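Sequence design from tokenized structure. All designs in this work follow the same two-part layout: the structure record, then the generated sequence. An example of the structure record is given first.
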């Protein structure tokens, strides 16, 4: 029954669309463009409201990561060589690189203005990976 209703609706819509004159089609297209522009403006306003707070929180986390990196480097510069020091220095370099990528991603969004939801998910995932890497590194120093 539902299939029949959908089929009839599709056929009816097709017939109605084919009955439009070119002027009516142009008017309908113009209305669609106007509607899309309004949707875009609404999305940008939503972004403008949410992004500054998100950016501030992210900047704080990135600065905190930089402080942790500095402290880790200071710990490894102490006298007394440990067999894992070179590997640990490499991991610190990797953490520093990942943190720089986070910063680049955050500031790059302002110029790209891509899908806000997708950006937030991707950025938060990357931020969580960096946080986990710091936690793993802390466990390694206890050894």
């Amino acid at each position: 029954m539902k299939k029949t209703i959908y089929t009839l609706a599709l056929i009816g819509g097709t017939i109605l669309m084919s009955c439009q004159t070119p002027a009516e089609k142009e008017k309908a297209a113009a209305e669609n463009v106007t509607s899309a522009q309004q949707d875009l403006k609404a999305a940008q306003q939503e972004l403008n409201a949410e992004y500054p707070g998100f950016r501030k929180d992210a900047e704080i986390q990135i600065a905190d990561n930089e402080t942790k990196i500095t402290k880790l480097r200071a710990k490894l510069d102490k006298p007394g060589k440990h067999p894992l020091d070179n590997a640990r220095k490499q991991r610190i370099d990797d953490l520093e690189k990942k943190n720089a990528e986070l910063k680049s991603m955050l500031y790059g969004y302002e110029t790209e203005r891509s899908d806000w939801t997708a950006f937030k998910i991707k950025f938060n995932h990357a931020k969580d990976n960096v946080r986990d890497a710091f936690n793993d590194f802390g466990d390694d120093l206890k050894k």
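The chain has a mean pLDDT of 78. We note this feature because it recurs in several other targets discussed in the main text.
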